[in-house]
Amino acid sequence: MRIKYLVFSGLISIASLMMMLLIFEISLAAAEASQEMSTNGEWIDQFDKTTLDSRWEWLYEDPSHWSLSEQPGYLRIVTQQGSLLFGGAKNVLLTTPTLENYRISTKVDFQPTELVQQASLLIYQDDENFLQLGYRYIGDHAVTFRIETPEDSQATNITATATTMYLRIKKFHNSYVGEYSIDGNTWFEVDRFNVQFSNAKVGLNVQNGPSTTDIPADYDYFEFNEPGVTFYVAPQAECGDVEPCYATIQQAVADADTFDTIKVASGTYTDLFVFPRDDVTTTGVVTQVVYLTKSLTLQGGYSPLDWETSDPQDNPTTLDAQGKGRVIYVAGDINPSIQGFTITGGDASGLGGADIWDGDAGGGIYFWGSPVTLIYNHVISNTAEVGGGIYGKGPDSEESDEDCWIIDNSIISNMGGGISMSGGNTWIYGNDVHHNQDGGMDFFVGSHQLHNNLIHNNKAFDGGGGVGFQWSQATLVNNLIAGNVLEDNEHGHGAAIANFGGSLKLIHNTIARNTGGDGSGIENWSGLDVAPFTATINLTNTIIVSQAIGIIVDDVSTVMIDSILWHNVPITVSQSPTAVVSVKNEYSGDPLFAADGYHITAGSAAIDKGLDAGVNVDIDGEPRPSAAGYDLGADELWIVVYLPMVTNK
């Protein structure tokens, strides 16, 4: 903290002066303390004291090879033979992160001359699980970002020569990005890794590898803070008293760095931008309101008078492509989060992008190979041949950190379907998906989790009015699939769910009043005449209501049912001679839905008829069970009793 002047005007008593100096001394001490540890968990150690900060701990300490006094203002750690990778590491300095997502950085003076001499930043779980970003000698000087786990061992080297090197690692969920700088201003990415650690610590270490020549590494500081900075966007760039401020989201994206946050004020943003295409092909260009190839957080719902609280309802933030391109385009191995926007007017015509065939995909939101997170968005009136609202080609990985998350969005009145996913792993929670043309949701291969969604009043042509699956694995829990319509009355099957060659597990779902085609709620089809796949559906604790046919089981497909309530279903199961069907614990009776068509009421035939299927909440997040047993369907009945008020007179 630098103090330029203390200016006194007029007469001042000695006592007053002493009091002012005391207050100043206390304030200065507080300011210095705040530099080291802020209220949000950020801190910096400048290594300018005679002892290490209490937050540090040594692993494999050798006190003879580190010092805070040999180079005042620096932590000197002298290299020794050995390394974390091959064993024999010494003087690994660690601290426990105080933030879930963070950035660690350091500046180190180091001049390696022999193979594998290295000074590093470290993310450390144990000797077999760590990330190491180091400046070292490997024949040339280089910055190396290494991941070491039992499942993955690799390193990326970038040639760079300097006597002083700046290093930083950014963490966002399970994604880590290693970067370096020679001047502390311009940063270069070395690589990024996705890995899930358990209680990992962060810190510094040096090593010689096989060399017996010990050399000093002088660390100027270690800084721990939020993973990025915040940018602001408002119409006409009128952001109030915050900066940097932009008039368009794309301008902010251009200046932002990995894991930065862009907060967007209420208003309607219609500017379109043309960029190179990077999806099925890299030939050509694409047009959209926002083009995203960085791991950023985009948040709408702000007021220029309040940048702390996002409220999309009171501060609607609309991205409108006006039918001239997509609204949001995401590509690359990135982990962006998009929250609190109204996404409308997108039209993917002529932009291609479909993974399965040469079609136009993703009118509202399009992402390719990116594990995106979409939260609290209103995706309405967008157009594409497939995935009119949202189209995604997820990463082809079974790792949890590669999942796509679509949470608490409303997806309404899109042409080409509400959501279409091709491959990858997707978690879809708490969304309201309705009145979309060409189906509510559609999944092609991949692994998917659908929980607590309202999927209703969507239309498709011949199958999967609510949800369609092709060669997918999926688990559906606590969903309402109701009022969906098939437009092909002659050949249509599966107005609620159509499963072609996939493996589905349904637990506590309510399927009601889906119409069109033959009136069936669920179709399970192996497609034996097309490809050698066996479709399988397991249903537990299900309600099926008001379907001409409950479930159609074709070809050599399999349906296993345990605990189901049928009501107004003339044909419960229709199966081909080669199909396999098992039904246990089936009941008939009126579920006595409330006016909303899916919450059950007192006296419902669904009450206490279910099994313990490992689901401890219902579609509203209320606990299961509420009484003696588990209720069938998406809703668990809770009776609220209001007691009379008693007062003392």
Number of domains: 3
- Specify the number of helices: 2
Based on Cα principal axes, name the global outline. elongated
Helix content: under 10%
Q: What is the total tally of β strands?
A: 52
Structural class: mainly beta
In angstroms, what is the radius of gyration? 30 Å
Q: Report mean pLDDT, rounded to a whole number.
A: 90
Question: How far apart are the first and last residues' alpha carbons, in Å?
Answer: 63 Å
Uncertain segments are 1-39
Percentage of residues in DSSP E strands: 35-45%
Main sheet makeup: 23 strands, parallel
What can be said about this structure in brief?
It is built from two helices and 52 strands.
Fold topology:
Elements: H1 14-36, E1 43-45, E2 57-59, E3 66-67, E4 75-78, E5 92-95, E6 102-109, E7 118-126, E8 129-137, E9 141-148, E10 153-159, E11 164-172, E12 175-181, E13 188-194, E14 201-207, E15 216-225, E16 230-233, E17 245-246, H2 249-255, E18 261-265, E19 267-269, E20 273-276, E21 285-292, E22 297-302, E23 317-320, E24 326-331, E25 337-339, E26 342-344, E27 365-368, E28 373-375, E29 378-380, E30 390-393, E31 404-407, E32 410-412, E33 419-422, E34 425-429, E35 432-434, E36 441-444, E37 447-451, E38 454-456, E39 459-460, E40 467-470, E41 473-477, E42 480-482, E43 485-486, E44 497-500, E45 503-507, E46 510-512, E47 520-525, E48 536-545, E49 549-553, E50 558-567, E51 571-575, E52 580-588
Parallel strand pairs: 16-17, 16-18, 18-22, 19-23, 21-24, 22-25, 23-26, 24-27, 25-28, 26-29, 27-30, 28-31, 29-32, 30-33, 31-34, 32-35, 33-36, 34-37, 35-38, 36-40, 37-41, 38-42, 39-43, 40-44, 41-45, 42-46, 44-47, 45-48, 46-48, 47-49, 48-50, 49-51, 50-52
Antiparallel strand pairs: 1-15, 2-5, 3-4, 4-15, 5-14, 6-11, 6-15, 7-8, 7-14, 8-9, 9-10, 11-12, 12-13, 20-21
